[in-house]
């Protein structure tokens, strides 16, 4: 993921969960109260808007952490 894409990716997490950039690499689904099922869909929406993509259902389900999400997004950009 290039620097521009990584920046978009980080901003989507910060906007969806209102967290600091410093903790992103540690984030996993359900590890913080904000990343519940509703927060998950807010994050997906932010990412789809940021990258102008539509994630497939299996990728939305597999999107279980900040790091795993990078792998998934790279398939679309």
Structure in a nutshell:
This protein is mostly helical. Helix content is about 60%, strand content about 0%.
CATH architecture: Orthogonal Bundle
**What is the string of helix and strand elements?**
HHHH
* Helicity level: 55-70%
Number of domains: 1
- Low-confidence parts lasting 5 or more residues at pLDDT below 50? none
Q: What is the CATH first-level class name?
A: Mainly Alpha
- Taken from the alpha-carbon principal axes, the silhouette is globular
Strand content: under 5%
**Overall mean pLDDT:** 97
* CATH superfamily annotation: ACP-like
Distance N to C terminus: 9 Å
Profile the largest sheet: none
Give the total of beta strands.
0
Return Rg in Å: 11 Å
What do these coordinates show?
This protein is mostly helical and 77 residues long. It has helices at 3-17, 37-51, 57-62, 66-74. It has a single domain (3-74), classed as ACP-like (Non-ribosomal Peptide Synthetase Peptidyl Carrier Protein, Chain A), CATH 1.10.1200. The protein has 4 helices and no strands. Helix 1 (3-17) runs antiparallel to helix 2 (37-51). The chain is globular and about 30 Å long.
